[in-house]
């Protein structure tokens, strides 16, 4: 018998006896239900005692009497019966356990796997407990999202068996200890998104010869020049993530590339600012995912990009419009997503799509804000897997291809701010989001408008004509419908099923008919804008049932009759405009029901159109809409505008309880009686216009308590007595000396009439008040519809990484900044044309803006202030 056969026999013998022992043990266990080692059970119980809040009861199965091997989160070795795995991560629960990590864990001598991720557990003073460094059998250690503080600890470098270490999203700070290089068995190292950590020398990485995955995102590496050289010595690397590391440059050349396994390279948000072509990574042909967002690389892409035949994801967005993409991409047959937004200096969409013909798996194509010209080719239809396309804000012209309807994977299409013309084609049934505002689309909507999955439809600011087809009612999931600034006419189709509709924006068309009865069934409506149309008839009492409404904009129509008292049932309402209609009768008395317009409510609910920062797409949509209306648009504005109607009677005294109201316009009506005495308690008031009424009596002196007021007009009433004084009021008068005009009985400083004589009026001033257009009602039109954003992209990103919360919000904020900047630039060419026309109204002369001339922004620019 040679030695090897002896070995085999021995082995068989050994395994056999082992089998006997274990099966005997299992036998025992099942007969007597023997629990785990008592010392380990005690250790676990004292770990449990350290937890002071386990609101979800994750550890509720941990009890004295039971076998600890069967407790939630515990795994025992089937051979030894000892605890080898402790996993009490509470990811995806939202309710972390809170407490301290008990040193009793040290008794778990055989523990190989410890996962405390996302719990609010800590050692003394929030630091990491030293004893963790003595758990020498650990192979997997996951402490991510545990809010430890203090310096990045060195204790882990004693855990020489570690293969997996995740310290991401902890609150460690300071220098990353080079002792981590002692962990020579590491395959997976994630030390990303700690708090303020840095490294000035990464040569210790070279010792991690088995490393496959490294994530050092948000660790400051601004002094590191040799990163490519260091990682090049670790040929096992498959994933390198260095987002937001302040890496100074990627301009290196590596003679001999060892990184033949590399699949993922992520360099997001490191400002390089040098030519793209000089980067070190272009020759790595194994790359599947390359992310260069926010690196500000410029110039032409190198030909090598065309040779990255494994490439599945390329993100080259937000790089400052200085790159040129002329590379032949015909070999990139694996490509699934390509993001080039805000990065190219110019381009031709026809060309780009032609170049991508091999990429039959393409799923996301995003090239917004790239100064692209050309037309959408019919061959687009061949991307049968295309799910997301964003070409917002380019100069793409021509028609939307008819073949669109056959792109059956398409869910999100963003084409806004281009020069597309012609009729909107039939939509693919899969479509969820279509943003095509600010184009030159014309003609009617297709009669067979069938998009049952549609959630967002924004086609505002085009030249679309005709009626809205009845078939739109089939889009039962729709949340946002924006048809404003078009040439629509006729009545709204009677849809009864749009129960999810939150935003309905129809302003600036020629819609007619009564207040649409179908709205009665839209029980989720938050934002309703019917302004600038030809709706008529009375406002129905059931308007008070739309209790979710926050913004109700009905101005510039022909509604008549009373304002139904039931409107004050809309307790969530923060903005109400009924301006420029033919409404008559009294202002409802119960105004104080507008709870959202009082500061008390603001304190409770954290304000207007507040959307919780949850991972909720809808909140994002909402934020878009908000941004779209501009930072000083409807949303900040807590206001009531009833101007340009025929309202009579007194201003209800209750109005003064709306102390969150920043804008109140009751001008151009027939209101009489006095200005409420305690008007000064409307502390948030910024703009108050009571002009052109029959108000009489004195101006209450409390008016001078309105410390935020920047716009006041009391002209053309029948006010008498002394003008109240106050620094704020005096300043206002200097800016707008006509604000008291046409009140023959007013006197005193700063007016020229001297009080005691009470003499008859010399009506000073001109009639400029008349020319003052109805700007305050139009404050948001001027802002145009902003461009809309790829929340889908954000959403996609969320799906990509397991936990994205923090970077996600940073990203979102960043994008909002972009949009704001965009808005500020007022990038749209003049598309809305208005001309001011005078027209006799029942109560007075009013201005009326109609039709087409000049840029809205110019005309109403003042109004937003
Ligand atoms: C032993 O455990 C099994 C299942 O875990 C259970 O059905 C049985 O009642 C237990 N026996 C005793 C004696 O507790
Ligand atoms: C720890 O738990 C989290 C959440 O269940 C999981 O995502 C993570 O992969 C686990 N860590 C390890 C090392 O398995
Ligand atoms: C325990 O945590 C839950 C969820 O995080 C929280 O709602 C609850 O108030 C906490 N209880 C105590 C006593 O802190
Ligand atoms: C651990 O790392 C430190 C610093 O890199 C080094 O001095 C020490 O020798 C290492 N210890 C072992 C056991 O490798
Ligand atoms: C990223 O690093 C910066 C400074 O280095 C720090 O202020 C910030 O908190 C870190 N971000 C996260 C999400 O940890
Ligand atoms: C990696 O490539 C360099 C040349 O850049 C070479 O000197 C080195 O030996 C290689 N390292 C490994 C581990 O293959
Ligand atoms: C847009 O592209 C054209 C050429 O197609 C170029 O002349 C122009 O400067 C570009 N505009 C910007 C803002 O880059
Ligand atoms: C865009 O490319 C297509 C196809 O190469 C070409 O026919 C068209 O003229 C180009 N358009 C512009 C505006 O350059
Ligand atoms: C869409 O596909 C159908 C069936 O394949 C075909 O008959 C139709 O012509 C296509 N429509 C367009 C506009 O390409
Ligand atoms: C309008 O309000 C009145 C008084 O609150 C109420 O009786 C009536 O039912 C309401 N009408 C509708 C249609 O809700
Ligand atoms: C103005 O008010 C006075 C009383 O304050 C009243 O006598 C007079 O008729 C009013 N004038 C107009 C035009 O309403």
TrEMBL record:
It is found in: Cell membrane. Residues 38-77 form the Leucine-rich repeat-containing N-terminal plant-type domain. Residues 1-24 form the signal peptide. The gene is gb13169. The keyword Transmembrane applies. Belongs to the RLP family. The keyword Lipid metabolism does not apply. It is a single-pass type I membrane protein. Its main location: membrane. GO terms for cellular component: plasma membrane. It comes from the Eukaryota. Keywords: Cell membrane, Glycoprotein, Leucine-rich repeat, Membrane, Repeat, Signal, Transmembrane, Transmembrane helix. This is Leucine-rich repeat-containing N-terminal plant-type domain-containing protein. InterPro entries: Leu-rich_rpt, Leu-rich_rpt_typical-subtyp, LRR_dom_sf, LRR_N_plant-typ, RLP23-like.
